[in-house]
Amino acid sequence: MKMATLATYFGLGQQTHRSLGDVRMNLEVLKYCATVLFLESSLPDIFTDTNGCIEFLEPEEVSLSFISATLVRFYRGPQRIQILHKSFPLQLVCGNLKVRFGISTKYVDHAGSPLSIVMDAPPSLEMILDEIDGRAKKLFLESGSFSEWRPVVTRNPGFFPTVRLKLPTVADGDMIKWVTEIHKEEASATHMLVCSRFDVLESIFTPGDHVDAYFSLDSYDFPQNVGIRLVAKKLIIHSSAANALFDNNMQ
């Protein structure tokens, strides 16, 4: 990332293209970056919560012309595709996504966790994901790989376009736990779901439910297929009364 971009992000103004002035600004940028890194390492919970409120964009806030795909090398890992918006990692929030298929413990990944939730993709989200897919696929083909590219939006004749939301997991001793923050809206309040049992997830995500989804875009590269997947960071499940209201408004 360029120094000028970081200077703008931290509110330090623009470069004057004068040697001494630019040197001073670059030093200020480095000081701000060092402060951010220090806070991130010292106060990870607070830092993550603050970023979480800022970084998620609604589809209407995304400009297609500012979407880009780049290859980045993660720590001690291979290069992967990263999706950016205005030079920053793109994360999205979409309200009232309708559940097409919930979680089933019959279908698990290599870690033994349920794979995903299938959601209907509204036109605004569909347009953004198509743009992301096009840019990422172009970069992928230029890299010389021969794996099959899988579109992030699934389309079948006669059905509404859908997307899959991946619920990431972590190992905790002998147990596998999900890390997605899940909230359930009740009649008078919203409660966070605190549980590690996958059968609980299977029962709370049912077809027809409406969910507010906060998610990032992560690339994957398996031997036979490659693409972009949506990784759920936070999900808010609406009450049955709210679901009925959303359905009536859509008719």
UniProtKB/TrEMBL annotation:
Domain of life where this protein originates: Eukaryota
Biological classification of the source: Eukaryota, Viridiplantae, Streptophyta, Embryophyta, Tracheophyta
Keywords, sorted A to Z: Exonuclease, Hydrolase, Nuclease
Protein name: Uncharacterized protein
Organism: Penstemon smallii
A GO term, aspect molecular function: exonuclease activity
